[in-house]
């Protein structure tokens, strides 16, 4: 042990100028330890808030289910009132023996009774959904009778942590800026020193040096712990840099473009309060579809904003952006408007933006094949999906119905069914294509004409259950999707940004920004440390620890 101390002193005394530089690096490495502490604080806050967040989400699900139940009950009341009105008129027509009125009112009564049955089913489904949401919340051990008071307490708890998180964020931001500003300066100084002493070995921050300087508390173990923390942070930073490099290589980007990725991704992550790793995952998803790095970066801001505003996964939204861009021929610069249409459309009914992110990549090619293009094609499809959802129990059923309509409305079987009703559907579709009309809308008109408005006869045309369910929804809410589509194109602008402003003010956003700042700070310090020779120094430290352990 004494021999190693003497050897270390000899090296240090011969390298005073370089040691001063490395002392500065060691000081900055202690800041890496501070960064690790901030990361631990972030983890602790995340864990303490995760239970609160889950409870608030469960409460939101209860509130949403109750809102849908109220709407369903209103719908049932309206349907029953209409059925009663028609029933009374029918009874009167029978009394006066008005044959024509009886026939017409009988058909309308059948439609009204089906509407009552559908509304009753909707109430039953929503009642069950409310019960399920309450049972899920009961798992937290909170009496469901005190939901309002409990929600108020939970939100107050979240608000109280936000101020502390923001304080840490500001401190971390200062460290980040300092490290980045000093990295280049130290690298240049180090290069100049190495050029002046080309043949002299570089000292390393080993435990022996720490002991020689009188650092007594943990001796060699203190140095080992410090080096381990630094190495762990260095590995994380290196892994992220390597991930960006691989993204650039997949996109066939230049080295200069790859070098600029880190700054772009970090800045966007902070703007949208999105974990930087998730943003990198979204960029990976975009370039994996064969897009260039420039195209992917054009898409990424709208993807990040939309994912943050809606609570969707970034890679899901990225895949949706690729599908929308490819199938609806919407360029990256116009993608935000497309996401505004989807976000506003998701709020217009029960088929939410998360559902669109999940299913549009598979629906897009089928819609594109029958002429859905641009913002109008997208808004039409979004509006139709809301119509399908009204006539279905789940989002999955709505998608299945939409898929069946897109795939089967021009099938040989359907064309033959129209012929049996005296309709030349093949000629009608051909004419509509030439005129650039929406073929689903043309299909609606043909069904209305063939059945003369009597949906009870739909079995004469369609016997497939999912196809029939979708057509029932189209005919039950005929004209609604066209109005919604037009409204989405005219009034949806800015929907995502308005939602994003709210989301980026909450406690989770502060935590995500703090995590991102810590990651960026660590990456800057890693480059700083590498410029000071710590990459090789950590290896030497490991050898020193081994020699101490076996001495």
Provide structural commentary.
- InterPro entries: Phage_tape_meas (IPR010090).
- This protein is mainly α and 551 residues long.
- The chain is built from 23 helices and no strands.
- Among the domains are: 44-139, Helix Hairpins; 329-493, no CATH class.
Features:
mainly alpha; Helix Hairpins; 551 residues; 0% strand; disordered N terminus; 23 helices
Largest sheet report: none
Radius of gyration: 33 Å
| Order of helix and strand elements from N to C terminus | HHHHHHHHHHHHHHHHHHHHHHH
Count of runs of 4 or more consecutive helical residues: 23
- Structural category is mainly alpha
Kindly, what is the distance between the CA atoms of the first and last residues, rounded to a whole number of angstroms?
A: 7 Å
Could you tell me the mean pLDDT? 75
Question: How many β-strand runs?
Answer: 0
Shape: flat
Helix content: over 70%
Poorly predicted ranges: 1-22, 197-225
Question: Summarize this, please?
Answer:
InterPro entries: Phage_tape_meas (IPR010090). The chain is mainly alpha-helical and 551 residues long.
Write the layout of secondary structure elements.
Blueprint lengths: L1 H13 L1 H80 L3 H40 L8 H50 L10 H6 L7 H31 L4 H5 L1 H12 L3 H13 L4 H18 L3 H14 L7 H13 L5 H17 L4 H17 L4 H14 L3 H9 L4 H11 L3 H13 L13 H12 L3 H12 L3 H9 L3 H25 L2 H17 L1
